Structures are given as C-alpha cells and as structure tokens.
Amino acid sequence: MSERDLVTRLLGTSGADAGCEETLALLAEYVEGELAGLDVDGLLPAVAKHLRNCPACAEDYQGLTGLAREQHHG
Question: Is 19 left (phi over 0), alpha (psi -120 to 50) or beta?
Fold first, then answer.
C-alpha cells in the first residue's frame, strides 16, 4: 500500500462510500455479481469503495467470497 493510499484510508474517503450498513445489505449481490464475471466495481462503486477502506467489511467480503466459491466449485 502506498503512503497516499494509507493516508486516504486513515482520513476517510471522498465521494460516494456506501458505509457499513449499505455495504452489508448489498454484499451478497456484490459477491454473486463478481463470481458471475460482472463489473461489480462499476455497478456498485460505493460498495467497492467502502470495501477498499473498511477492514471489517473487507473481512466479511473475503469470508462470503470464500464460501460462495466453495459452493460454486463444490
């Protein structure tokens, strides 16, 4: 992570950020779209931005992605 990325993360984000509540409400849709090959960053940019800046939500995203991939391949 660059120093600029770290500073941005520490100071918060500019522009649209879905916040934790909205991100968690849309997380399943985000993961399903990603696994389907959709441009989820383009479709849900506020969620994508939040996941880049919120370690707790990013952890939930990683867990859900792992479970979804297991279901898809298992």
Answer: left
Helices (H), 1-74: 3-11, 19-35, 40-43, 45-53, 55-73
Instruction: State which amino acid sits at residue 60.
Output: D
Residue type, 2: S
Tell me the C-alpha distance between 74 and 19, whole Å. Answer: 32
Q: Give this prediction's pTM.
A: 0.76
pLDDT > 90 in the chain, percent: 70
CA 9 to chain centre: 14
Contact 24, 60 (CB under 8 A): yes
